Amino acid sequence: MELFRSVGARLGEANVLQAIGDVQQFRKDNDAALKSYAQALELFRSVGDRLGEANVLQAIGDVQQFRDERDAALKSYAQALELFRSVGARLGEANVLKAIGQLNLLDDPKRADDLLNQALSTYEVIGARYHIAAQTGNFGFTLLRLGELDRAQSYFVRATALFEQIGMADQAKQTHQYAIALQDADTRLKFAGALYQAKEYARAEREYRRVIELAPRNASGWLGLGNTLESLKRNDEAIDAYSQAIALAPDEAMLYRNRANILLNQDRLDEAAHDIARAAELEPDHIFTRARQGELALARGQFADALAHLQFAAEHDDDTGWQLELAIAQFANGDATQAQKTITAVIAQADADKRENARDWLARIVKLKPALADPAEELKKMLE
């Protein structure tokens, strides 16, 4: 670059700056890449190299897309597309159409597919058959990263056929493997579980239902669906899902405990007691079993039994939920001072859901023992 500058070869200087930007982009040094591209862009414009200008604008759009700067990327791509078309650079035009399509995959799937088809038609005109297959596969990989598994699978199927048509067996095998994997219930189950853990419940529900569609007798799929529906406060649907899981795996204690949790919240205590008794037959000393026994005792006003069960759960697991429920049992048994100490020790670590659950149990205790209404106000404040 120093030599190009010394002889005033601005085009050579621009090409080097663009190459430096490409390396920086490859190394994920995006700020530096954008700086190099900006310098290259200025030089290409100064010498009237519209193709060089278009290539740099496309590269800038790629960096902006990687950084999730969607509006900026669309603007850069639009400028690049206009320039590629003005100089008749059909390959560049197709590549940019594909890139714009990828940006629309989530917000406007139809436009994304239309843009890909425009790109594929352009590749066909210029005989770039590899690009037709590769970019179709790239749409699949982009959708896979975005969590759109069914749509990704359809693109992988298309890419497989396209690679086979041009005799690229290795690439066809790779896209075929992705297409097959996305039809596998266990693969989808893992993905659904990740969505659930991330609290993306609407997407998790969709994926669990897809698991069940692929494998109707998959108890884990029904369990996951039940957990997700419960998180969405669609409790009757969640009970139905847990019941389906129980029918498929009648010796799985967790399923009874999960269904009992909703039944307890709905004050369907006899049904909850049946499920808790079955869980106790299967896993009598499991922390969650003892906790459910404690909750049932709380709901029935059997406060001494509740204290014993919840003390066990709190001593054997440091989950703040058990600690807060233990505090409620302590309060119900007349030990408000100890209840406040227990809450103080864990409240900073308790999330909003566990605080809300503890407040709900406190309200139920007050309903059972109205005389506790006034002292309960102090605990309620602590649980905010």
Question: How would you describe what is shown here?
Answer:
The protein is an all-alpha fold. The protein folds into 3 domains: 2-181, Tetratricopeptide repeat domain (Serine Threonine Protein Phosphatase 5, Tetratricopeptide repeat); 196-284, Serine Threonine Protein Phosphatase 5, Tetratricopeptide repeat (Alpha Horseshoe), CATH 1.25.40.10; 297-384, no CATH class. The protein is 81% helix and 0% strand. It is built from 22 helices and no strands. The protein has helices spanning 2-6, 10-26, 30-47, 50-66, 70-87, 90-103, 109-125, 129-145, 149-165, 169-181, 185-197, 201-214, 219-231, 235-248, 253-265, 269-282, 287-299, 303-316, 320-332, 336-346, 352-368, 373-382. α7 (109-125) runs antiparallel to α8 (129-145). The radius of gyration is 30 Å and the shape is elongated. The protein starts with a helix and ends with a helix. The model has no long low-confidence stretch (mean pLDDT 93).
Features:
384 residues; mainly alpha; Serine Threonine Protein Phosphatase 5, Tetratricopeptide repeat; 0% strand
CATH architecture of the largest domain: Alpha Horseshoe
Question: Whole-number average pLDDT?
Answer: 93
Question: What's the CATH superfamily of the largest domain, by name?
Answer: Tetratricopeptide repeat domain
Strand content: under 5%
Mind summarizing the main beta sheet?
Answer: none
**Number of domains in the coordinates?**
3
The CATH topology of the largest domain is what? Serine Threonine Protein Phosphatase 5, Tetratricopeptide repeat
Cα radius of gyration in angstroms: 30 Å
Please report the distance between the alpha carbons of the first and last residues. 63 Å
For the secondary structure, the number of strands is 0
- Helix/strand/pairing category: mainly alpha
Give the ordered list of helices and strands: HHHHHHHHHHHHHHHHHHHHHH
CATH classification class of the largest domain: Mainly Alpha
- Model regions low in confidence, pLDDT < 50 over at least 5 residues: none
Helical percent range?
A: over 70%
Number of helices: 22
